[in-house]
TrEMBL record:
Listed GO CC annotations: peroxisomal matrix
Function summary: Fatty acyl-coenzyme A (CoA) diphosphatase that hydrolyzes fatty acyl-CoA to yield acyl-4'-phosphopantetheine and adenosine 3',5'-bisphosphate. Cleaves CoA, CoA esters and oxidized CoA with similar efficiencies. Preferentially hydrolyzes medium-chain acyl-CoAs and bile acid-CoAs. Has no activity toward NDP-sugars, CDP-alcohols, (deoxy)nucleoside 5'-triphosphates, nucleoside 5'-di or monophosphates, diadenosine polyphosphates, NAD, NADH, NADP, NADPH or thymidine-5'-monophospho-p-nitrophenyl ester.
Nudix hydrolase domain segment(s): 49-181
Organism: Callorhinchus milii (Ghost shark)
Record-given protein name: Peroxisomal coenzyme A diphosphatase NUDT7
Cofactor (UniProt): Mg(2+); Mn(2+)
Localisation: Peroxisome
EC class of the enzyme, as a word: hydrolase
Assembly description: Monomer.
Amino acid sequence: MVRGALCGECRAGEGRSIAMATRRLSTKDRIRDLLPKYDIGNKYSDLMLPKASVLVPLLIKNEEIYVLLTVRSLKLRSNTGEVCFPGGKQEPEDVDDVATALREAKEEIGLSPNQVEVLCRLVPVINKDDILVTPVVGIVAETFEAQLNLDEVSEVFVVPLQYFLTPEQHTSNSYNSPTGQVGLLHFFTFTDHEFHKPFTIWGLTAFLSIIVAFLVLGEKPSFKVDFDIDNPLSSMDRFLLAKYATSKL
C-alpha cells in the first residue's frame, strides 16, 4: 500500500510538474520571461536631444501574438494617414519614457495604463527630425477595446507579429544615412480582412516591428536587413551613437 501510494504521489507530482511546465511555456509567460532581458533602463536618458516614446502594444489571442497599430488622423499637421505606434513627444509631467508612451496611448486610443503590462524599453532610435524615440514594449489586456481620439487617430488595427518576419508583401529601398552608411527602408503591405483594405507599414514603424518580432519569436526574417540579425540590439546601439554624433544638437 505504501509503495503504491508513493507511486501515485510520484505520478501526481509528475502531473503537477508537467502542468507547471505547460504554464511556463504559455505565450504570455514566455514573453514575460524574455523581454525584460532586453530592457535598457535609463541608459540613454542623458543624450541631449528632444525625446519621444512609442508604445509597441502586443496582444495575445489563442496563443498567437499580434501588434496593434494606428493610422494618423488627417487632421494632424504632419505624417497624416501614416501607420504608426501610439506615441509622441515627452511632456514635462512625464517622469520617464514609459510614462510618455502610456500617456500618449491613453490619449490616442483610450488604452488605460492599468491595461498594459510594460516589459521593456528597447534601444532608442533618432528619427529624421533628430528626436530620440524610445520603444516601450508591453502586453495589452485582452479586454481592451479601443476608443479613438479622432483628432489624432483615424483607425486602429492589428497585425500578426509573424507577418514582420515572413510577409506576403514586402519591399525595401536602400538609402544613404547621415553617418555615411547604406541603410534599408522597409515597406510592408498588410491587408486587414476586417476593414477590407490594405495598410502600408514603413519606415521607423516597420523597423521596430521587425526588431520586436525577431526578439519575441526568435526567428530570422525571410528578407534582407541592414543590421546584425544575430545581435540586433548591438546594431541599434551602434546606429544610435553614430547618428547622435552627426545630429543637430
